[in-house]
Design brief:
10 strands; alpha/beta; 6-stranded mixed beta sheet; globular
Length: 257
C-alpha cells in the first residue's frame, strides 16, 4: 500500500478549475517530483495534500486513512527557509516538537541528535544570519522531518541557491534521504533537478492542471556525480521536453478554438 494516495482531486477558485482529476501515489522512501510550468496548479495540489484547502472533488489518504482537509498530518517545506532570526538553529529546528507539546529541554535534545546526520554539527547555538543559504536549507529540512517522519512536501526548496551550492546540496540531499527514508513529494520547475533526485516524475500540464505523464527513473541510487552527463540522463530530459512542448501546443490550440 502507498504511504500517500491522492485520489481524483479537483479544485477550482472563483469558478475556474485550477487542477482536475489528479491521482498520484507516493510509496515509502520514494522521492517523487511534480514537474511543470508556473501556474500549473502544483502549489494548489500541495495545499490540498497538507489539508490547508479542501478539494471540490476527490480524497487524500495517508496510510489508508482519509486526511482530506485535515492539517497537521504531513510536513510542508516552502521555498524560503523561514528561519526565525532571533532563535538559535537548534531552537528553530526544535519548533515542531514544541508545537506538539514536548518540553523545551527534551525538544532541544531530540533535535540536536540529528545535527550530525544532517551535516549541521557545530551550528546548534548559531543564528540563521551566521549560516550560508545551503546550511539554512539543511536546517529547514531537518525541521520539516521532525514535524512528520512519514511524508514531506517540498516546494522548490533549492530554487534560491546558486548553481554550485545547489549541486552540492543535491548530493547531500540524496545521501540523507537514503538514510532517513523520508517519503517526499517535491515541486520543481528544474528538469535536471527532477531527474537527478527522483524515483518517479509526474508531469503536471495544461489549464486546468492534469497529470499527463509519469516517468520512472530507472537508474538506481546512489547515482554517480556524472549521471547528468550520461546518454540515459539526456534521453529522460529529451522525453520530458518533448512532452511539455506537445502539451503546450495542444493547450494553445484549445485556446484558439
Amino acid at each position: 500500500m502507498s504511504v500517500l494516495h491522492v485520489d481524483k482531486v479537483t479544485k477550482s477558485f472563483d469558478g475556474e478549475k485550477v487542477i482536475e482529476d489528479i491521482s498520484i501515489k507516493l510509496n515509502k522512501g520514494e522521492i517523487v517530483s511534480l514537474l511543470g510550468v508556473s501556474g500549473g496548479g502544483k502549489t494548489t495540489l500541495f495545499n490540498l495534500i497538507a489539508g490547508i484547502k479542501m478539494p471540490d472533488q476527490g480524497r487524500i489518504y495517508l496510510d489508508g486513512k482519509d486526511i482530506t482537509g485535515k492539517p497537521g498530518n504531513v510536513s510542508y517545506m516552502l521555498q524560503k527557509d523561514l528561519m526565525l532570526p532571533y532563535r538559535t538553529i537548534v531552537d528553530n529546528v526544535a519548533l515542531p516538537l514544541l508545537v506538539k507539546g514536548m518540553k523545551k529541554k527534551e525538544a532541544r535534545e531530540k533535535a540536536s541528535s540529528y545535527f550530525e546526520q544532517f551535516g549541521l554539527s557545530g551550528t546548534e547555538k548559531k543564528f540563521p544570519a551566521q549560516l550560508s543559504g545551503g546550511m539554512k536549507q539543511r536546517a529547514a529540512l531537518l525541521r520539516t522531518y521532525l514535524f512528520s517522519e512519514k511524508v514531506a512536501l517540498l516546494d522548490e526548496p533549492f530554487s534560491a541557491l546558486d548553481m554550485l551550492t545547489k549541486s552540492s546540496i543535491h548530493e547531500w540531499y540524496l545521501d540523507v534521504m537514503e538514510k532517513i527514508q523520508l517519503s517526499t513529494l517535491f515541486i520543481t520547475h528544474d528538469i535536471d533537478e527532477a531527474i537527478l533526485l527522483s524515483d518517479r516524475i509526474y508531469l503536471l500540464t495544461g489549464k486546468p492542471g492534469r497529470i499527463t505523464k509519469e516517468i520512472v527513473i530507472e537508474k538506481k541510487k546512489p547515482r554517480g556525480k556524472d549521471f547528468n552527463l550520461t546518454e540515459e540522463f539526456l534521453n529522460y530530459k529529451k522525453d520530458i521536453l518533448a512532452h511539455l512542448e506537445e502539451q503546450e501546443s495542444d493547450t494553445d490550440q484549445i485556446r484558439r478554438v
